[in-house]
Structure formats: structure tokens, C-alpha cells
Amino acid sequence: MQKAMFFAVLVLALSGCITTMEKDVSKPNPEKALATHVKLGLGYIGEKNLDSARFHLNKAYELDSDDPGMLNGRGLLYQLEGEPELAEKHFKQALRKNPSFTQARLNYATFLFNHDRFQEAYDHYQKASEDLNYERRAVCLYGVGVSALKLDREERAVAAFEHAVLLQPSLAAAHLELAEYHLKEKRYAEAKRSLNQFERYAKASSRSLWVGIQIERIFGNKDKEASQALSLKNLFPYSKEYLEYKKSKESR
């Protein structure tokens, strides 16, 4: 099972709401203005419009320098700007102000994972996953899984991936992890089912195509194997998976 995994920055999905929220900023209610500036900041972070994100998060800071949402937003902003010390400082401040702020904990866990601090990442993902009311709990469990893999805790990782897809069947990345695990364990029918679920919700990747090639080869489906091999060659000719495929052909 591939253990290296890069997590995209996790932010609230606010695209499409920015124009409407911009109109709310000018209203006199300070609490509403604060919340709107934070949401706009996160929305612009999601769009990688860092200048606009900074503008609104600075406005939020002027209204309340201790607001956990603003601190979390600044953590994300500094992370994208390549300022890890400032990012970590703000994530920690957000969690000190509100230890139950699961979104900030998830973002901090992702930050830690991306900096190869896997035990710390695991601990924060695990803590975040214990929030039964959090709408992105499946993503937290996926984080538990990939962190557990880095810590050579495969059994815990598989349990986390299975729990994640139970909560959110459309979480394609977890299905791919399970497909690769079942393939390694020679549970080929289960590997195929997990890969089918991945393909239902996501576009092919070099990794998914290589897993698919191996599964079809085992079942003797030469046409499907050849089709996926051609896709791997055409779409990902410089991937490590294509190199692995070529080596497997040479050794047969």
C-alpha cells in the first residue's frame, strides 16, 4: 500500500457564496461583520486568492484579535504562503481559544502531516474524528488512516478507511487505499470492489490505473489490462507506477 500521501489544504467550501457575503460586510452588526469577514477569507483561500483572503482576515483581526475562526484562517493563509512557523502559531492559538474547534484541529493535523510529523498528526486527526457531529468526520478518519500508515499501524489504518467510507461513500481516496490493501493481501474480489467504488467517484490516477492493471491481470482479463495499461502510458508516462508496470512486463 502506498504510504506517501499529500493532503490538500482543507478549507470550508465557500465558493459561489463570496459575492453575496461581500454585501454583508458593510452592515453595522460587528459580530455578523466578523463572521462574514472570516467566511470571505476562507472562501478566497479556497480560490487561492490570497490577497483578498488577507484583506478580509485582517479586517476580522481588527474586529476581534482572539477570534478562533480568524486565527484558523490565518493559519491556512500562512501555510499557503510558505510560512510554517506563523501557520502553526495561529492554528495553536485557535485551538487554545476553542479546544472544540474541530475544523481548526483538522487543518492543524493536515499541517503536521505535510511536515512529516506523523505521530502528532495522528493524534490530532484522532481527536478530530471523535467529534460525532462534525460534518467532515470521514475526512478526519481518512487522516487517521494515512497517518497510521506512516506509523506502520496498518490494521488501524484499514479500520479508519473502512469507517470513513461507511460515513461518506463518495470519499474516493479511502476506497483506493482499501483497494491497494486488499490487493496486497490477495483479496482480489474485495480489491476490485473497492477500486470500482473509487472509479465511481473519482477520475483515474496513475496509482488507480496500476492497481487496476494488477487486478485485471490476476483475473485474466487481458483486454481490460491492456486498456488500463494504455491509459497509464498515455496519461502518466513519467509516473513511478508506469515504471513499475514496465518492469512487471519485462519480468514476465
Automatic annotation (TrEMBL):
Family annotation (SUPFAM superfamilies): TPR-like (SSF48452)
InterPro entries assigned: CellSynth/LPSAsmb/PSIAsmb, Pilus_4_PilW, TPR-like_helical_dom_sf, TPR_rpt
UniProt-listed SMART domains: TPR
Annotated keywords: Repeat, TPR repeat
Start and stop residues of the TPR repeats: 68-101, 138-171
Name of a matching Pfam family: TPR_1
Annotated PANTHER family: LIPOPOLYSACCHARIDE ASSEMBLY PROTEIN B, TPR REPEAT-CONTAINING PROTEIN PA4667
Protein name listed in UniProt: Type IV pilus biogenesis protein PilF
Organism expressing this protein natively: Simiduia agarivorans (strain DSM 21679 / JCM 13881 / BCRC 17597 / SA1)
